[in-house]
Design goal:
Two copies of one chain form a homodimer. Chain A is α+β, with helices and mostly antiparallel strands and 363 residues long. Chain A is 30% helix and 28% strand.
Chain lengths: 363, 363
């Protein structure tokens, strides 16, 4: 086995989820990522955890959802019962075909996901991590050879996460006490929002591996302006190209997309919260140096900002604060590399992708 | 997809487990059998069941068990919680390498299996079925091309199970009211046992697919004599060759094997019940016409008898009857094709593999 796979497994169990003897651990990986599942299982055996390691099948999920009726999907009570007794969840992605769900009608896909929402809610209360195995499907999506994609993934994943945390804390110190944030990019994006009273989180490879962002929650009704998401956004196996949103009093009042607009509309129509922002994230992982059409990586790039319609992430919301709730959470990326800036309380903190605390910054 | 796979899936959901709308169904298949998992998922979607379809990984199980300590394995409480909320379990086998567990020390393997026993016990109280996908590993084990092995598997599986039930009921009528059974083969096997008060079950593809046997439980302390299991027996990825047992008052008092005797010994030493017989089975599926080193098929062959050390199968034990209990259940086969007979209450009911109710029988 490639020794980088064992390194990856060790970061997952020791750094990301801090598995201990006796923990009930659930590991899910697609067949293409079986090597990493094996390496994680080995680590769990050494630690003395109680491991349920199973492989997922996107093909089987597609067949089930496609054959079912949109109105009839019910919660898997047995899967929920397992999740309730679980301490740690390790979710591995890595497909042979990233378009496997592409012929499921968006509304049906959303109805199925909604029916299983209590399982996701339960999981997010656990110690959990989502990560990526360098499978051929994602390599193809990134237009990279599998060999080059392996280099890319392990470069972003197997790194010094303590140093990364330190680097990112500089941005946390700016954003956490802030009131107003403004995102400007070219002629197409000029968005303002309040983050007053929210908490800025430092993502250094715990729930996402790779990590590499700082993120917070907008005050739901504070978002004003328009934004063009000019970077890759893949949902339900389909790419939404050039999604565009206009906000008034926090709500999406207009939307458009160059391609797969119906997928965007299905997400926005899930519930009321799906038409408001739940997250503002700023990418800071400099080992991610290209877009790969994979949100787990793309949103961590140093020259990007991402916004999510849908649910806020609970760790960014202090007790008692009003926040956005929804069944969905869809991240969308704005490229900030050129003709762009981030303003925090009227001060520019990033211009053309370079942070104020990095070399080469030009205020 | 090969249409025989969809036929197989339909027998699993409609005949074997009779899945209904709203049932919580658990499907487990190895990666090599993903096609069948997909076909079953499609059926479950049509039916309106709640499906958890996941793939298993023998490689991950091996890595976990190998890395763990024999004394430290604990029950997966989360997996048990899922099983408790499950109505139907469909277990699919089909490996790329049937020797995947072969370097795990037998005692360690047994300790792990014992730690997870409550999950197996819970599962056997559900509607469940175990079946086989024609994967390359089992084809190789059978010394068959994958193409020929597919023919073999679908011949045994995709058949008229109502007709098979009728055929087998002739043997149930002989065995169910019987007292003493005697199995004689060549110079090496002469075993007697009582089945008085036990119930003979007719296996027509419900819990095993293929089905094709009738089976009952010996009275635990009634077994006397010796038996040579001269047909393939694979346990924990290793073949036990020519296992030999001698019984007195129902207990194994002497045992031997030509190869992998330590695996046999580890099973017999699991607990007290592992040294007594829990099952007498008689193979009756004439579409299984060769040994393939796979107990699911071999034990159903028309010219064989099989005996299991370990736990009795509950459906063969009427309430209030004493029966054998154990953490293990290991089937072992005697070839009855030549120089052999089965005697029930002093009457010969099968000679050289031909039943009394079949053409060519010579009493």
């Amino acid at each position: 086995m490639d020794p980088r796979i064992r390194d990856h497994a060790e970061i997952l169990t020791d750094h990301s989820t801090q598995v201990e003897a006796g923990d009930n651990v659930l590991v899910r990986a697609p067949p293409a990522a079986e090597d990493l599942a094996v390496a994680v299982a080995e680590k769990l055996g050494e630690i003395g955890a109680n491991a349920s390691v199973t492989l997922s099948s996107t093909r089987a999920t597609r067949a089930f959802v496609q054959a079912g009726d949109t109105d009839d999907f019910e919660l898997n009570e047995h899967t929920l019962a397992m999740m309730e007794e679980t301490d740690v969840v390790i979710i591995i992605k890595g497909d042979r075909n990233t378009a496997e769900m592409s012929d499921v009608p968006p509304a049906k896909h959303t109805a199925y996901a909604e029916s299983q929402r209590p399982i996701v809610d339960e999981r997010t209360n656990k110690r959990w991590v989502g990560t990526q195995f360098p499978a051929s499907g994602e390599a193809q999506k990134a237009e990279m050879s599998t060999e080059a994609y392996e280099e890319f993934v392990y470069g972003a994943v197997n790194k010094d996460w303590d140093a990364q945390r330190e680097h990112q804390s500089q941005m946390v110190e700016i954003l956490d006490p802030a009131d107003e944030v403004r995102i400007v990019s070219g002629e197409t994006t000029d968005l303002t929002m309040s983050v007053a009273g929210m908490k800025t989180a430092n993502d250094y490879g715990e729930k996402n591996l790779p990590g590499g962002e700082v993120f917070t929650a907008p005050v739901p009704d504070s978002v004003e302006g328009e934004v063009l998401f000019d970077k890759p956004l893949v949902r339900q196996g389909r790419e939404i190209e050039d999604a565009w949103l206009r906000f008034e009093d926090g709500d999406v009042v207009e939307h458009d997309a160059e391609k797969n607009e119906d997928v965007l509309a299905a997400v926005l129509n899930t519930d009321d919260g799906a038409r408001r922002l739940g997250e503002l994230g700023i990418g800071m992982n400099r080992d991610i140096d290209r877009f790969t059409y994979n949100m787990l990586f793309d949103e961590k790039m140093g020259d990007t900002v991402h916004l999510a319609v849908g649910s806020a992430i609970r760790e960014t919301v202090p007790d008692g604060q009003t926040y956005n709730e929804s069944a969905v959470h869809m991240d969308m990326i704005v490229d900030m590399a050129e003709d762009s800036y981030i303003e925090v309380d009227d001060e520019i903190v990033q211009r053309d992708g370079t942070f104020r605390f990095e070399d080469g910054f030009e205020g």
